[in-house]
Design brief:
The complex is a heterodimer of chains A (327) and B (262).
Chain A (H helix, E strand, L loop, with lengths): L13 H22 L14 H30 L4 H42 L5 H30 L9 E3 L1 H18 L3 E7 L6 E3 L1 H18 L3 E8 L3 E8 L6 H4 L9 H4 L10 H11 L3 E7 L7 E9 L6
Helix pairs in contact in A: 1-2, 3-4, 4-5, 4-6, 4-9, 5-6, 6-9
Chain B lengths: L6 E6 L5 H12 L3 E6 H4 L2 H15 L3 E5 L11 H12 L5 E5 L5 H9 L7 E5 L4 H12 L5 E4 L3 E4 L4 E5 L5 E3 L5 H16 L5 E2 H5 L7 H20 L8 E5 L3 E5 L6
Parallel strand pairs in B: 1-2, 1-3, 3-4, 4-5
Antiparallel strand pairs in B: 6-7, 7-8, 8-9, 10-12, 11-12
Helix pairs in contact in B: 1-6, 3-4, 7-9
The chains are: A alpha+beta (327), B alpha/beta (262).
């Protein structure tokens, strides 16, 4: 899951505030002038509520300064060298999303909890219930990883929408990340009669400087796809080279035809779209994964041998720099 | 199944919820003992925090599962992190699995940056994770292999006794006579790798160190075949190329527990 970076503080909208203050002061002056005609201070020909002129001038100038100041802050945002408006929007979206995530997560936890409780009771008592009940429980359990990934994808998506969001690099053990992914999907794979294996070269892989959350998010998407569309065997391999490391996720499925492969990383594209069928996923996973890979100076590519050719398979290769402290 | 010696402390304001109960049950099925600090028992988040500190000092658990959020009040939202910081400061080697509804987020950044060393045994897992995933993560975090490891519901590796036990058709456990010496060492190596991380391939070289001779690779193949024949006989089923111990091309072998009969 990609780490949410701390964002730069935007420039303070001083001129906008100053302009609004001036305009308010002008309005006040206009009101005051109605009750306190300062004719002793401004003799003829200035005797007509002179303070109101000052007030009108203050309102006009104040509003001009306020609009100018606000537009200036927005203009910087548009040019990409500051993040005020967009950053605020992004932060707001993030906060709202976290609220929704919490509110959505609660019923999901209750449903899953009850589902697991029923499973536990059935396993303990050996009670013979209809196969439909087991299928229902399996279905609920199988949806949980998809829900988790969907939530994570949305959260990362919000982050990716923020231009110039800083990237975080710190010591990461890629094999620990791979191990976590396997732990996450092993149960689901077993339920589907599928199998996940992993290894690294060298076996003692060591540390790299990257973002564990981003790495985990990319690999999770790849493994989730492999389980969804691939064959019954998935292999994850991590390989270290002098300047970069790769993580390959291979499945022995029927392969991805060329005309589909060309669209795999397109935002929102799913295989069903090519067949004018209803989408079964958001089509964001691979787009997000490749965008994250690029953000961290790497790449995500795909190669496939399509059935009925022998040894048909699909392999996604994530390449990232080894990095260095402070890079 | 003989009990494992480890014990896990669970600190969670939803400790009595079905989802946490399912985690407890899974851990206990694996032989862990569990102790719970709950809101029902201790009331406020602060009381939970101090109760957890007392348990950690008195009972010295092998691992802690800790909720980031210890209550519904705003102040309680990240109260679990206060306890985490205290654990990291006072017991930096105590494995902690942070239970959170967020798989990422501000709290994760805060903790990662402020308190944790790169090798700190602290990981985050979201609450929707399956009990199996929680148990697997806890296994890896705690690190040390137990004296006995169950492989599925019918096989038990007893490392102390250097024996492999199989539940026979009568439901009784009996040792597999043919698996001893180097064969046991090889199977133990594969079992431990699987226990630490399912699906992990053990490189040929790591297994060949138990063998001697000019062609250790061929010798390893023979030993693996012997193990599979013995295990198949004990289990009453033929073990094929893709069963129990599986070769991964040019890399090594991995353990694949027999599929459970439903």
């Amino acid at each position: 899951m990609a780490t949410l970076p701390s964002r730069r503080a935007g420039g303070h909208p001083f001129f906008a505030y100053a302009g609004i203050t001036l305009a308010v002061a002008g309005l006040a002056a206009m009101v005051v002038s109605l009750f306190l005609p300062l004719t002793w201070l401004f003799p003829n020909p200035w005797s007509v509520e002179p303070l109101s002129y000052v007030g009108i001038a203050a309102v006009v100038v104040g509003l001009a300064v306020a609009v100018g100041g606000y537009a200036g802050a927005g203009g910087r945002c548009g040019k990409g060298n500051g993040l005020n408006g967009l950053d605020d929007w992004s932060r707001l979206t993030e906060q709202q999303f976290e609220t929704y995530q919490h509110d959505l997560g609660r019923p999901m936890r209750r449903i899953l909890g009850k589902c697991r409780e029923v499973r536990g009771v059935l396993a303990a008592t050996g009670e013979d219930v209809s196969i439909v009940v087991h299928e229902l429980l399996d279905e609920i359990e199988e949806q949980a990883p998809s829900f988790r990934l969907m939530m994570a994808n949305m959260q990362v998506m919000i982050n990716l929408e923020t231009p110039d969001a800083p990237t975080e690099r710190y010591p990461v053990e890629p094999t620990a990340v791979v191990s976590r992914i396997v732990e996450r999907y092993t149960g689901q794979a077993a339920e589907q009669g599928k199998d996940i294996a992993w290894w690294s070269e060298p076996a003692e892989f060591g540390l790299v400087y990257s973002d564990a959350a981003a790495l985990e998010h990319i690999i999770a998407n790849l493994v989730d796809n492999a389980l969804r569309y691939g064959g019954d065997y998935i292999e994850i391999t991590a390989t270290r080279r002098p300047d970069e490391f790769t993580v390959c996720v291979t499945d022995n499925g029927p392969g991805i035809p060329d005309h589909y492969r060309a669209h795999l990383f397109t935002r929102g594209w799913t295989p069903e779209m090519g067949r004018s069928e209803e989408k079964t996923s958001s089509g964001l996973g691979l787009y997000i994964s490749r965008t994250l890979a690029h953000r961290y100076g790497g790449d995500l590519s795909v190669a496939s041998v399509v059935a009925p050719q022998p040894n048909h398979h699909t392999v996604f290769t994530l390449t990232l720099p080894i990095g260095s402290p402070g890079a | 199944m003989p009990p494992r010696s480890g014990n896990i402390l669970i600190v969670d304001d939803e400790a009595t919820s079905a989802i946490v109960r399912a985690v407890c049950r899974r851990l206990e099925d694996e032989g862990w003992s569990t102790q719970v600090v709950s809101k029902e028992e201790h009331g406020s988040a602060d009381d939970m925090l101090w109760a957890a500190v007392a348990v950690i000092e008195d009972a010295a658990p092998d691992g802690v599962i800790l909720d980031v959020r210890l209550g519904e009040y705003r102040d309680d939202q990240f109260k679990g992190l206060d306890l985490l910081k205290r654990i990291v400061a006072e017991r930096p080697r105590l494995p902690v699995l942070m239970f959170t509804q967020y798989s990422q987020g501000v709290e994760r950044d805060t903790v990662a940056r402020s308190a944790l060393q790169v090798d700190a045994p602290v990981e985050f897992i979201d609450k929707l994770a399956s009990p199996e995933e929680v148990a697997l993560r806890m296994r890896r975090l705690v690190g040390a292999e137990p004296e006995t490891i169950a492989i599925g519901s019918r096989i038990l590796m007893d490392n102390d006794a250097r024996a492999v036990l199989v539940v026979n058709e009568n439901g009784e456990m009996e040792p597999v006579a043919d698996i001893s010496g180097r064969r046991f060492d090889i199977l133990r190596e594969l079992t431990q790798a699987w226990y630490r991380s399912p699906g992990n391939v053990v490189p040929f070289g790591r297994l060949e160190r138990y063998l001697e001779g000019d062609d250790t690779r061929a010798s390893l193949r023979v030993r693996i075949r012997e193990i599979k024949v013995s295990m198949g006989r004990a289990l009453g089923q033929a073990l094929g190329a893709n069963d129990f111990i599986v070769s991964v091309r040019e890399r090594g072998y991995r353990l694949l527990p027999p599929r459970e009969q439903v």
